[in-house]
Structures are given as structure tokens and as C-alpha cells.
């Protein structure tokens, strides 16, 4: 093992326990600005180490399991954070779940997707991916968002943008069914739709002017699944030796520790963020957006790195998978937690949020259908993400 590899392994192994120690010392405190800055350094270290260990595990289990693993791991901890804040937080928490989930959706479907498409298309001329896989993921995200955050605006059983008890139970069951069906499709039934498009397919797409333009690239099994393409992709993977079982187990444990630490430190930093938001005169919803961005940082970094390597399908798996898990896992848990939580649970979006979600859905469909994108597609998504951030600060 080279000295560079040993150094990388050393920092990636030592950082999660060190960040966890910082969390243990700072938990439940309201740190001053200088201490908050030091906690921020530990938070960044936990994010970077989490990305490293996620890539180790993903390399061992392969796609699309690696993307699914990271998306679910982050979302499970995110759900725990939401419930914890709703139970122990001060002030009105009726819209906390809605605002957090909506922020996660906008960050993933516009921020992460836009950044990855822009990076991949600028670096490789075109960002090529499988429209069957990306399209089914986007359709599931849109359906989940519509059922859980749009429908409550129009229901009449309860006053306001809230579900009745039976309506919330139906939304929770429907969310689990949709998410479970997608996971089965992604990992078992049509796993080939979610594998990265090979380099040869990308070259042929550029030469033919698009996927399937008289080249027979779109086949029954999906894009880029011809034998020569699979061989080429396998050759690319051969340059990196898969980790051993012991390395994978250690990385999986450190990944969980890193993600727990990221969420915990984000909670500790929320006090400093709240102070900064109050000092700047911004709405309190900004706090949720900032924390969501911190929690989603590992997935963002992993997705962009995949885009740099021309593995855009992996980037989309991470982005749409995170959005899907944020809704499909959060709503059922919140539905159960609402049994003992006091007050209403407002899941319905505000008119401004509805408009942004509608625009995001339309643009997402137009982006996914061709199976390839130019830098313009990435810019459009990033402008929508910038509009979300700006209108959150200045509604």
C-alpha cells in the first residue's frame, strides 16, 4: 500500500471518531461564534469522510445499490432529526416536516441534478444517461410530492393544508408502496436501467446526434447493455481493486458514524445559524434550508464526483433517490409520530412553493426524456434552485 493511500485511510478512519467526540462535547450547548467555527471544521471533516466511506461501500456492492445505500442512510438520519426537532423543539413545528422535505426535494431535483448535468456536459460535451431509469425515478418523486404536499392543499375534511387522520394514513401507506416498488425495480426487476451509461454509448450518442438515432442503442434491456459495452465498462472498473470484506465492514460502520455525526453537528450548529438568520432578518425557513444542505452535503459531493467521471446515471440515482427517500420515508414516520405529537401537521405547500414544484416537475421531465443533456439543461435547473433559495430569503 502506498504512502498516499495509507494517509488517506488514516484521515478517513480517524476523522469520524474525532467528529463524534466533538459532537459529544458540544451536544446540548449554545456555542459562541469561535467555537461554532471549530465545530464547523469538524462538520466538514465528517462530510468528507462520509463521502469516502460511502464510495468504498458502493464500490464493493456496485450500482445501483451504492447510490441507494447512501440515499437511504442519509434520509433515515434526516427523519430522526426532524422528529427530534418536532418533539423537543421550541415554537411552532407544524410546518417543520413540510419545509424540510420540500427543501430536500428542491436541493436534489434542481441543485444536485443541475450541478451534475452542468459539470458532466461541460467536461464531456454531453451528459448521457438512461432515460428509462431516470424517468421512472423522476415520475416517482413527482407522484410522492404531489400526494403528500400538493393534495393536502385541496382536501376539505380538515381546515387548512392538513390531512385528516385517515388521509394521512393513506398518504403514508401510498408513500411506502411507491418507494418499495421503486427500490424493487431499481435493484431487482430492471436494475440495468440504473447502471451508468458506458463510454462507448456516449461516443455513439455524440456521433449519431442522440441516443437511439438509428444506432440501435436503445434495446430491450436498456441503454448500453451490449456485450462490448459491458466489457468496456468492466475494463474501466478493473483499474480499482474492490475493497475486501473487512474494509467494507469498517467503512460501512464509519459511514454510519459519519452520517450520525453530520446530522448531530448540524443540529448543534443550528443555534449559530438561527442567530445569524435572526441578525440578518431572514425568515426562519432559511434555517431548515441551511441544515438540509448540510445534511445532503455527502450526497452532493458523491454525485458531482460521479458526474466528473462521466457516470451521470449514478449522479441521478443519488439525486432522485434522495428526494424519493426524503418523502417516502419521512411521511410514514411523521404519520406515526403524529399520534403523540401535539398540534396540526401542515403538509400542504404554500402557493409560491407549489409554483416552484410545478416548474421543477416540468423542467425535470423535459430534461430526462431525451436521455442526454447539454450545459443549458444544467443551467436551467440551477436557476430554479437559485430562485428557490432567493424566494426563501425574500418571499
TrEMBL record:
It comes from the Bacteria. It is found in: Membrane. Signal peptide: none annotated. Residues 36-187, 251-392 form the Sodium/calcium exchanger membrane region domain. This is Ionic transporter y4hA. Its main location: membrane. It is a multi-pass membrane protein. GO terms for molecular function: potassium:proton antiporter activity; sodium:proton antiporter activity. InterPro entries: Alkaline_pH_Ca-Antiporter, NaCa_Exmemb. Keywords: Membrane, Transmembrane, Transmembrane helix.
Amino acid at each position: 500500500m502506498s504512502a498516499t493511500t495509507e494517509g488517506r485511510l488514516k484521515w478517513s478512519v480517524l476523522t469520524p471518531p474525532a467528529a463524534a467526540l466533538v459532537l459529544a462535547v458540544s451536544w446540548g450547548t449554545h456555542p459562541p461564534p469561535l467555537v461554532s467555527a471549530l465545530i464547523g471544521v469538524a462538520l466538514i471533516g465528517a462530510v468528507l469522510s462520509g463521502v469516502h466511506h460511502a464510495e468504498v461501500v458502493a464500490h464493493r456492492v456496485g450500482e445501483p445499490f451504492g447510490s441507494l445505500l447512501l440515499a437511504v442512510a442519509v434520509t433515515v438520519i434526516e427523519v430522526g432529526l426532524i422528529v427530534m426537532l418536532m418533539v423537543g423543539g421550541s415554537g411552532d413545528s407544524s410546518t417543520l416536516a413540510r419545509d424540510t422535505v420540500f427543501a430536500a426535494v428542491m436541493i436534489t431535483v434542481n441543485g444536485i441534478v443541475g450541478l451534475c448535468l452542468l459539470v458532466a456536459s461541460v467536461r464531456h460535451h454531453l451528459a448521457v444517461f438512461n432515460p428509462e431509469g431516470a424517468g421512472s425515478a423522476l415520475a416517482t418523486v413527482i407522484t410522492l410530492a404531489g400526494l403528500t404536499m400538493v393534495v393536502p392543499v385541496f382536501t376539505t375534511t380538515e381546515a387548512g393544508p392538513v390531512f385528516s387522520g385517515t388521509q394521512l394514513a393513506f398518504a403514508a401507506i401510498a408513500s411506502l408502496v411507491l418507494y418499495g416498488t421503486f427500490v424493487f425495480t431499481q435493484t431487482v426487476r430492471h436494475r440495468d436501467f440504473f447502471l451508468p451509461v458506458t463510454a462507448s454509448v456516449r461516443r455513439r450518442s455524440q456521433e449519431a446526434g442522440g441516443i437511439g438515432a438509428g444506432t440501435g442503442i436503445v434495446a430491450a434491456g436498456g441503454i448500453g447493455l451490449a456485450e462490448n459495452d459491458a466489457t468496456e465498462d468492466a475494463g474501466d472498473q478493473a483499474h480499482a481493486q474492490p475493497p475486501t470484506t473487512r474494509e467494507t465492514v469498517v467503512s460501512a460502520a464509519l459511514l454510519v458514524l459519519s452520517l450520525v455525526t453530520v446530522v448531530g453537528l448540524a443540529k448543534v450548529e443550528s443555534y449559530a445559524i438561527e442567530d445569524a438568520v435572526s441578525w440578518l432578518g431572514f425568515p426562519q425557513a432559511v434555517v431548515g434550508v441551511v441544515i438540509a444542505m448540510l445534511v445532503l452535503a455527502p450526497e452532493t459531493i458523491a454525485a458531482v464526483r460521479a458526474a466528473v467521471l462521466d457516470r451521470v446515471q449514478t449522479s441521478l440515482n443519488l439525486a432522485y433517490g434522495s428526494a424519493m427517500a426524503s418523502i417516502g420515508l419521512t411521511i410514514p414516520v411523521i404519520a406515526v409520530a403524529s399520534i403523540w405529537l401535539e398540534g396540526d401537521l401542515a403538509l400542504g405547500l404554500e402557493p409560491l412553493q407549489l409554483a416552484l414544484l410545478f416548474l421543477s416537475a416540468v423542467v425535470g421531465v423535459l430534461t430526462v426524456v431525451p436521455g442526454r443533456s447539454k450545459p443549458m439543461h444544467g443551467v436551467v435547473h440551477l436557476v430554479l434552485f437559485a430562485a428557490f433559495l432567493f424566494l426563501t430569503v425574500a418571499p
